[in-house]
Amino acid sequence: MTTAFYTPPSSIRGDRVLLPDDEARHASTVLRKQAGDSIVVVDGEGGWHRVQIDHVSRSQVVGTRMETRREVGEMNVSLTVGLGLLKSRNRFETFLEKGVELGAAHLIPLTSDRTEKETLRRERTHNLLVAALKQCGRSRLPTVPSPQPVADVAAETDADLRLICHRPADAAGTLLQALRRAAAPASITVLVGPEGGFTDGEVAAATEEGFVPVSLGPRRLRAETAGITAAATVATWAAGR
Ligand code: SAM
Asked: What is the CA(120)–ligand 1 centre distance, in A?
Protein backbone atom coordinates (compact mmCIF):
# COMPACT_ATOMS: atom_id res chain seq x y z
CA MET A 1 0.00 0.00 0.00
CA THR A 2 1.54 3.34 -1.02
CA THR A 3 1.55 6.25 1.41
CA ALA A 4 -1.15 8.74 0.46
CA PHE A 5 -0.91 12.51 0.33
CA TYR A 6 -3.29 14.67 2.33
CA THR A 7 -5.15 17.73 1.20
CA PRO A 8 -8.18 19.36 2.84
CA PRO A 9 -11.48 19.29 0.88
CA SER A 10 -11.18 23.07 0.34
CA SER A 11 -8.16 22.40 -1.92
CA ILE A 12 -10.20 20.21 -4.27
CA ARG A 13 -12.15 22.35 -6.73
CA GLY A 14 -14.07 20.27 -9.24
CA ASP A 15 -11.42 17.85 -10.51
CA ARG A 16 -8.49 20.17 -9.77
CA VAL A 17 -6.47 19.07 -6.74
CA LEU A 18 -3.87 21.24 -5.04
CA LEU A 19 -1.51 19.84 -2.40
CA PRO A 20 -0.67 22.01 0.65
CA ASP A 21 2.88 23.46 0.73
CA ASP A 22 4.43 20.83 3.02
CA GLU A 23 2.89 17.93 1.07
CA ALA A 24 3.97 19.52 -2.24
CA ARG A 25 7.55 19.92 -0.96
CA HIS A 26 7.61 16.28 0.14
CA ALA A 27 6.22 15.12 -3.22
CA SER A 28 8.61 17.20 -5.30
CA THR A 29 11.89 17.17 -3.39
CA VAL A 30 11.81 13.88 -1.42
CA LEU A 31 9.71 11.61 -3.62
CA ARG A 32 10.68 13.35 -6.88
CA LYS A 33 7.16 13.19 -8.29
CA GLN A 34 6.74 14.54 -11.80
CA ALA A 35 3.97 15.62 -14.17
CA GLY A 36 2.18 12.51 -15.41
CA ASP A 37 2.70 10.53 -12.18
CA SER A 38 -0.35 9.06 -10.46
CA ILE A 39 -0.74 9.61 -6.69
CA VAL A 40 -3.39 8.89 -4.05
CA VAL A 41 -4.75 11.87 -2.12
CA VAL A 42 -7.03 11.61 0.92
CA ASP A 43 -9.04 14.57 2.19
CA GLY A 44 -9.65 13.51 5.82
CA GLU A 45 -13.43 13.63 5.33
CA GLY A 46 -13.84 10.21 3.75
CA GLY A 47 -12.64 11.11 0.24
CA TRP A 48 -9.99 8.95 -1.46
CA HIS A 49 -8.81 10.28 -4.83
CA ARG A 50 -6.53 8.96 -7.53
CA VAL A 51 -4.87 12.05 -9.00
CA GLN A 52 -2.70 12.53 -12.05
CA ILE A 53 -0.09 15.23 -11.53
CA ASP A 54 -0.24 18.10 -14.06
CA HIS A 55 2.36 20.45 -12.65
CA VAL A 56 5.19 20.19 -10.09
CA SER A 57 7.37 22.93 -8.68
CA ARG A 58 9.32 22.99 -5.39
CA SER A 59 6.36 24.25 -3.41
CA GLN A 60 3.38 23.43 -5.58
CA VAL A 61 1.78 20.27 -6.92
CA VAL A 62 -1.41 20.51 -8.97
CA GLY A 63 -3.22 17.55 -10.44
CA THR A 64 -6.44 16.25 -11.96
CA ARG A 65 -8.73 13.89 -10.12
CA MET A 66 -9.17 10.68 -12.14
CA GLU A 67 -11.14 8.56 -9.65
CA THR A 68 -12.86 9.08 -6.29
CA ARG A 69 -13.94 6.52 -3.70
CA ARG A 70 -15.63 7.11 -0.37
CA GLU A 71 -14.75 5.90 3.13
CA VAL A 72 -11.74 3.82 2.04
CA GLY A 73 -10.20 2.05 5.03
CA GLU A 74 -13.00 3.03 7.41
CA MET A 75 -14.58 0.72 10.01
CA ASN A 76 -18.12 -0.62 9.75
CA VAL A 77 -18.90 0.74 13.22
CA SER A 78 -18.41 4.26 14.58
CA LEU A 79 -15.96 3.98 17.48
CA THR A 80 -15.40 6.68 20.07
CA VAL A 81 -12.64 6.20 22.64
CA GLY A 82 -12.37 8.61 25.57
CA LEU A 83 -9.08 8.52 27.49
CA GLY A 84 -8.22 10.49 30.62
CA LEU A 85 -5.57 13.14 30.01
CA LEU A 86 -2.15 11.84 31.03
CA LYS A 87 0.85 13.43 32.75
CA SER A 88 2.89 12.63 29.68
CA ARG A 89 1.72 14.37 26.53
CA ASN A 90 3.86 11.90 24.55
CA ARG A 91 1.92 8.94 25.89
CA PHE A 92 -1.37 10.61 25.08
CA GLU A 93 -0.11 11.33 21.56
CA THR A 94 0.84 7.67 21.17
CA PHE A 95 -2.77 6.82 21.98
CA LEU A 96 -4.00 9.33 19.37
CA GLU A 97 -1.67 7.97 16.69
CA LYS A 98 -2.69 4.36 17.32
CA GLY A 99 -6.34 5.40 17.54
CA VAL A 100 -6.11 6.71 13.97
CA GLU A 101 -4.48 3.49 12.76
CA LEU A 102 -7.12 1.39 14.49
CA GLY A 103 -9.98 3.25 12.82
CA ALA A 104 -11.55 5.27 15.66
CA ALA A 105 -13.95 7.99 14.53
CA HIS A 106 -13.62 10.14 17.66
CA LEU A 107 -10.81 10.31 20.23
CA ILE A 108 -11.87 12.32 23.27
CA PRO A 109 -9.42 13.63 25.89
CA LEU A 110 -11.22 13.28 29.21
CA THR A 111 -10.87 15.31 32.38
CA SER A 112 -11.82 13.62 35.63
CA ASP A 113 -11.08 13.71 39.37
CA ARG A 114 -7.66 12.12 38.83
CA THR A 115 -6.49 13.70 35.57
CA GLU A 116 -3.59 16.11 35.30
CA LYS A 117 -4.05 19.63 33.95
CA GLU A 118 -2.15 18.79 30.78
CA THR A 119 -3.47 20.12 27.50
CA LEU A 120 -2.87 19.15 23.90
CA ARG A 121 -1.22 21.34 21.30
CA ARG A 122 -3.75 21.68 18.52
CA GLU A 123 -1.41 22.06 15.57
CA ARG A 124 0.90 19.28 16.73
CA THR A 125 -2.10 17.00 17.30
CA HIS A 126 -3.46 17.75 13.82
CA ASN A 127 -0.08 17.00 12.23
CA LEU A 128 0.26 13.66 13.97
CA LEU A 129 -3.30 12.66 13.03
CA VAL A 130 -2.61 13.52 9.39
CA ALA A 131 0.70 11.60 9.38
CA ALA A 132 -1.03 8.51 10.78
CA LEU A 133 -3.94 8.88 8.32
CA LYS A 134 -1.64 8.98 5.31
CA GLN A 135 0.39 6.01 6.49
CA CYS A 136 -2.43 3.65 7.44
CA GLY A 137 -4.63 3.84 4.35
CA ARG A 138 -7.81 5.34 5.74
CA SER A 139 -9.58 8.39 4.42
CA ARG A 140 -11.28 10.05 7.39
CA LEU A 141 -9.54 11.93 10.18
CA PRO A 142 -10.90 11.19 13.64
CA THR A 143 -12.19 14.19 15.55
CA VAL A 144 -10.26 15.19 18.67
CA PRO A 145 -12.33 17.73 20.62
CA SER A 146 -11.10 19.87 23.51
CA PRO A 147 -10.83 17.96 26.80
CA GLN A 148 -14.25 17.21 28.27
CA PRO A 149 -15.34 16.03 31.74
CA VAL A 150 -15.96 12.29 31.74
CA ALA A 151 -19.38 12.87 33.33
CA ASP A 152 -20.43 15.09 30.39
CA VAL A 153 -19.25 12.58 27.80
CA ALA A 154 -21.07 9.78 29.64
CA ALA A 155 -24.28 11.83 29.83
CA GLU A 156 -24.21 13.09 26.25
CA THR A 157 -23.26 10.01 24.24
CA ASP A 158 -26.01 8.30 22.29
CA ALA A 159 -23.85 5.34 21.23
CA ASP A 160 -25.63 1.99 20.85
CA LEU A 161 -23.03 0.26 23.05
CA ARG A 162 -21.39 2.07 26.00
CA LEU A 163 -18.49 0.52 27.84
CA ILE A 164 -16.24 1.77 30.61
CA CYS A 165 -12.95 -0.02 31.24
CA HIS A 166 -12.53 -0.69 34.92
CA ARG A 167 -10.82 -3.00 37.39
CA PRO A 168 -11.31 -6.63 36.32
CA ALA A 169 -12.78 -7.60 39.71
CA ASP A 170 -15.62 -5.04 39.35
CA ALA A 171 -16.29 -5.66 35.65
CA ALA A 172 -19.19 -7.51 34.04
CA GLY A 173 -16.90 -9.62 31.83
CA THR A 174 -14.40 -8.54 29.20
CA LEU A 175 -14.78 -5.93 26.49
CA LEU A 176 -14.68 -8.69 23.87
CA GLN A 177 -17.53 -10.56 25.60
CA ALA A 178 -19.58 -7.35 25.64
CA LEU A 179 -19.00 -6.90 21.89
CA ARG A 180 -20.04 -10.48 21.16
CA ARG A 181 -23.19 -10.10 23.27
CA ALA A 182 -24.25 -6.84 21.60
CA ALA A 183 -26.92 -6.82 18.87
CA ALA A 184 -25.06 -5.32 15.87
CA PRO A 185 -24.25 -1.87 17.33
CA ALA A 186 -23.67 0.88 14.76
CA SER A 187 -21.81 3.00 17.31
CA ILE A 188 -19.67 2.20 20.34
CA THR A 189 -18.21 4.47 23.00
CA VAL A 190 -15.45 3.15 25.30
CA LEU A 191 -14.14 5.16 28.25
CA VAL A 192 -10.67 4.59 29.72
CA GLY A 193 -9.37 6.23 32.89
CA PRO A 194 -6.17 8.24 33.48
CA GLU A 195 -3.08 6.91 35.36
CA GLY A 196 -4.91 6.99 38.69
CA GLY A 197 -8.04 5.36 37.25
CA PHE A 198 -11.66 6.51 37.48
CA THR A 199 -13.13 7.05 40.93
CA ASP A 200 -15.91 4.70 42.00
CA GLY A 201 -18.26 7.70 41.79
CA GLU A 202 -17.32 8.32 38.14
CA VAL A 203 -17.89 4.67 37.27
CA ALA A 204 -21.24 4.70 39.12
CA ALA A 205 -22.32 7.89 37.28
CA ALA A 206 -21.35 6.38 33.91
CA THR A 207 -23.21 3.18 34.79
CA GLU A 208 -26.35 5.25 35.39
CA GLU A 209 -25.95 6.58 31.85
CA GLY A 210 -25.97 3.05 30.44
CA PHE A 211 -22.22 2.30 30.49
CA VAL A 212 -21.23 -1.28 31.30
CA PRO A 213 -17.96 -1.78 33.24
CA VAL A 214 -15.71 -4.15 31.30
CA SER A 215 -12.29 -5.72 31.82
CA LEU A 216 -9.34 -5.85 29.44
CA GLY A 217 -7.86 -8.90 31.15
CA PRO A 218 -6.15 -9.71 34.45
CA ARG A 219 -3.21 -7.29 34.22
CA ARG A 220 -3.33 -3.59 35.08
CA LEU A 221 -2.47 -1.83 31.83
CA ARG A 222 -1.02 1.64 31.55
CA ALA A 223 -3.78 4.03 30.58
CA GLU A 224 -2.61 4.54 26.98
CA THR A 225 -2.11 0.77 26.58
CA ALA A 226 -5.68 0.29 27.80
CA GLY A 227 -7.00 2.86 25.29
CA ILE A 228 -5.10 1.24 22.43
CA THR A 229 -6.17 -2.27 23.53
CA ALA A 230 -9.82 -1.20 23.65
CA ALA A 231 -9.60 0.29 20.14
CA ALA A 232 -7.72 -2.76 18.81
CA THR A 233 -10.27 -5.15 20.28
CA VAL A 234 -13.16 -3.29 18.64
CA ALA A 235 -11.27 -2.99 15.33
CA THR A 236 -10.51 -6.72 15.17
CA TRP A 237 -14.04 -7.66 16.19
CA ALA A 238 -15.52 -5.26 13.60
CA ALA A 239 -13.27 -6.58 10.82
CA GLY A 240 -14.54 -10.10 11.45
CA ARG A 241 -18.28 -9.51 11.64
N1 SAM B 1 -4.83 2.51 39.99
C2 SAM B 1 -5.82 2.44 38.96
C3 SAM B 1 -6.93 1.47 39.31
O4 SAM B 1 -6.66 0.50 39.98
O5 SAM B 1 -8.05 1.67 38.84
C6 SAM B 1 -5.14 1.98 37.66
C7 SAM B 1 -5.61 2.76 36.54
S8 SAM B 1 -5.04 2.14 34.94
C9 SAM B 1 -3.36 2.52 34.96
C10 SAM B 1 -5.73 3.35 33.89
C11 SAM B 1 -7.04 2.96 33.25
O12 SAM B 1 -6.79 1.92 32.31
C13 SAM B 1 -8.11 2.43 34.15
O14 SAM B 1 -8.87 3.48 34.75
C15 SAM B 1 -8.95 1.57 33.22
O16 SAM B 1 -9.88 2.38 32.54
C17 SAM B 1 -7.91 1.05 32.26
N18 SAM B 1 -7.41 -0.28 32.55
C19 SAM B 1 -6.14 -0.66 32.76
N20 SAM B 1 -6.04 -2.00 32.91
C21 SAM B 1 -7.30 -2.48 32.80
C22 SAM B 1 -7.85 -3.78 32.85
N23 SAM B 1 -7.12 -4.87 33.05
N24 SAM B 1 -9.18 -3.90 32.66
C25 SAM B 1 -9.96 -2.81 32.45
N26 SAM B 1 -9.49 -1.56 32.41
C27 SAM B 1 -8.17 -1.39 32.55
From this structure: 22
